[in-house]
């Protein structure tokens, strides 16, 4: 069908057949701007015109689509971009462009409530998690129901002042948490509803060499995968994707085909018999692994968790994890370093090329990185008594406030909101915005920033400046803190001596 014929099918279904359609998702090919513009012009005032494969939860793509009036609703799928912080950037662009937001599951999903937590965090217009027949879908809907029940219970409970004994116990618990470290990072193949695996992660913390308290608390994360994938989507790393350093000998290269991204696949005409002829156990193991689940196994991504990411995070104090952005910055830096190690990225690569590698996650795998991001975000949140949705909402709120403060401040707000915001002694401008404006009012402020900025300035760049996940900072460690403290003491002594 031509573009016009496809549009006419939609129009006839709605207007003549009187089918009560309220949303249209992926209505045209992801690169068919003319088709999207057509349906927005004709039906955008009546339907949610939802961008999915055309935006792939990438902040820059969402901004492009909004600026060219290609959709009025953004379909948020965290595994399309691969960390929670980058998902928050995508949501923030959508809020600043005044788009509706629907948070969506994927067709192949484990029992993880990530989508429900994200939807609640951003006041999404909708949560799309499929029909309620499959347990992994009920798991997501059930998560919202439990949070609602908890909110009702807490609203009915009268707040009481801590006793002296309780204050003492709270202080002891806080002091203990400051000393606990991440003792174990473990990845594995996690089952999904379709039988094709994804990756699961467990992060444990406690006392390193204690038999009783080594796994004092544990937090998990697992990411979905989807059948439909946009070209800009982060890569769910499967075992049929082979890196050069996995190939045992150079003489075996005739068994493989190199792809555009520098990775390899076994050629289609390679057989088990041909592999057996080589009498090489490493080659045989690689062949078996690459063919499990029809090539869709995730052992490689799980190994990246148990080696690369375990090395990055094990031994770090829980107190030193920092914010969600701090965690994801370290994960993205690990992805970059892996790309350099594999020879797929130059050490001196341009910033935009580095960001593209970070967003694609083709080296450690989106399934490894996002699962790790989830588990660590849950851990960091619980240490402050917060659920995942609260951590995510806090990130959204603070980033909106900081972006408003850095781009005009109070004076850029609509008149009614300007009157509402008062100067607060001892607090930075963005902190006053957080305490005096609610989520939707901050979103209005972000929209004001978008309206006031120069045409050649991108909203996603303004947001990245306040949620700097692509800056390549490394995680804070106790060792670095001690070194910094020693330097500070030495400087004081030198000053005193002078």
Q: If strands are numbered along the chain, what order do they take across the biggest sheet? A: 1-2-3-4-5
Count of discrete domains: 4
Write down the secondary-structure element order. HEHEHEHEHEHHEEEEEHHHHHHHHHHHH
Helix content: 40-55%
Can you lay out the helices and strands and say which pair or pack?
Blueprint lengths: L2 H13 L7 E3 L7 H11 L4 E4 L7 H9 L5 E4 L7 H13 L3 E5 L9 H8 L4 E3 L6 H22 L7 H16 L1 E10 L7 E9 L10 E6 L33 E3 L5 E3 L5 H7 L2 H11 L7 H15 L10 H18 L9 H10 L5 H17 L5 H19 L8 H6 L8 H8 L2 H14 L6 H8 L11 H20 L1
Parallel strand pairs: 1-2, 2-3, 3-4, 4-5
Antiparallel strand pairs: 6-7, 7-8, 9-10
Helix pairs in contact: 1-2, 3-4, 4-14, 4-18, 5-6, 5-14, 10-13, 11-12, 11-13, 14-16, 14-17, 14-18
Description:
With 498 residues, this protein is α/β, with parallel strands linked by helices. The protein has four domains: 3-156, TIM Barrel (Alpha-Beta Barrel); 176-235 and 298-386, Enolase-like, N-terminal domain (Enolase-like, domain 1, 2-Layer Sandwich); 244-295, no CATH class; 390-466, no CATH class. It is 49% helix and 10% strand. It is built from 19 helices and ten strands. The strands form three sheets. The protein has a five-stranded parallel sheet. It has a three-stranded antiparallel sheet with strand order 6-7-8. β9 (256-258) and β10 form a beta hairpin. The model is unreliable at 474-487 (pLDDT under 50).
Sum up the structure in keywords.
498 residues, alpha/beta, TIM Barrel, Enolase-like, domain 1, 4 domains, five-stranded parallel beta sheet, three-stranded antiparallel beta sheet, 49% helix, 10% strand, globular
């Amino acid at each position: 069908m031509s573009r016009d014929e496809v549009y006419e099918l939609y129009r006839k279904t709605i207007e003549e057949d009187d089918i009560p359609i309220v949303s249209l998702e992926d209505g045209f090919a992801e690169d068919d701007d003319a088709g999207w513009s057509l349906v927005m012009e004709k039906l955008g005032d009546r339907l949610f015109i939802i961008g999915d494969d055309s935006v792939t939860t990438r902040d820059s793509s969402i901004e492009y689509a909004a600026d060219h009036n290609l959709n009025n609703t953004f379909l948020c799928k965290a595994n399309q971009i691969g960390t929670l912080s980058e998902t928050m950037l995508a949501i923030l662009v959508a809020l600043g462009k005044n788009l509706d937001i629907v948070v969506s599951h994927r067709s192949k999903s484990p029992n993880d409530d990530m989508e429900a937590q994200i939807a609640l965090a951003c006041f999404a217009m909708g949560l799309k998690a499929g029909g309620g027949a499959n347990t992994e879908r009920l798991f997501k809907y059930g998560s919202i129901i439990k949070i609602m029940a908890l909110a009702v219970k807490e609203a009915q409970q009268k707040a009481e002042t801590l006793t002296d004994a309780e204050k003492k116990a709270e202080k002891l618990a806080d002091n203990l948490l400051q000393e606990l470290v991440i003792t174990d990072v473990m990845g594995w193949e996690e089952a999904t509803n379709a039988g094709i695996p994804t990756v699961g992660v467990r992060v444990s913390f406690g006392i390193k060499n204690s038999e009783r308290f080594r796994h004092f608390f544990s937090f998990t994360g697992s990411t979905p995968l989807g059948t439909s994938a946009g070209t800009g989507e982060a890569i769910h790393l499967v075992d049929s994707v082979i890196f050069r350093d996995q190939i045992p000998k150079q003489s075996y290269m005739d068994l493989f085909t190199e792809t555009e991204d520098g990775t390899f696949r076994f050629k289609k005409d390679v057989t088990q018999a041909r592999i057996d002829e080589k009498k090489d156990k490493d080659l045989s193991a690689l062949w078996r692994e690459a063919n499990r689940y029809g090539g869709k196994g995730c052992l490689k991504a799980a190994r990246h968790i148990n080696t690369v990411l375990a090395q990055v995070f094990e031994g770090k104090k829980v107190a030193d994890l920092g914010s969600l952005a701090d965690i994801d910055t370290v994960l993205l830096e690990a992805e970059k370093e892996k790309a350099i190690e594999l020879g797929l990225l130059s050490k001196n690569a341009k910033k935009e090329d580095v960001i593209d590698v970070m967003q694609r996650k083709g080296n450690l795998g989106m399934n490894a990185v996002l699962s790790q991001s989830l588990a660590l975000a849950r851990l960091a949140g619980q240490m402050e008594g917060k659920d995942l949705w609260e951590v995510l909402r806090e990130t959204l709120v603070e980033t909106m406030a900081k972006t408003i403060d850095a781009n005009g401040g109070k004076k850029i707000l609509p008149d009614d909101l300007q009157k509402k915001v008062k100067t607060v002694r001892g607090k930075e401008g963005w902190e006053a915005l957080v305490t005096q404006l609610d989520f939707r009012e901050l979103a209005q402020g972000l929209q004001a920033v978008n309206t006031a900025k120069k045409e050649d300035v991108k909203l996603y760049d303004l947001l990245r400046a306040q949620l700097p996940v692509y800056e390549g900072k490394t995680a804070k460690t106790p060792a670095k803190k001690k070194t910094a403290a020693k330097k500070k003491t030495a400087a004081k002594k030198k000053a005193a001596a002078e």
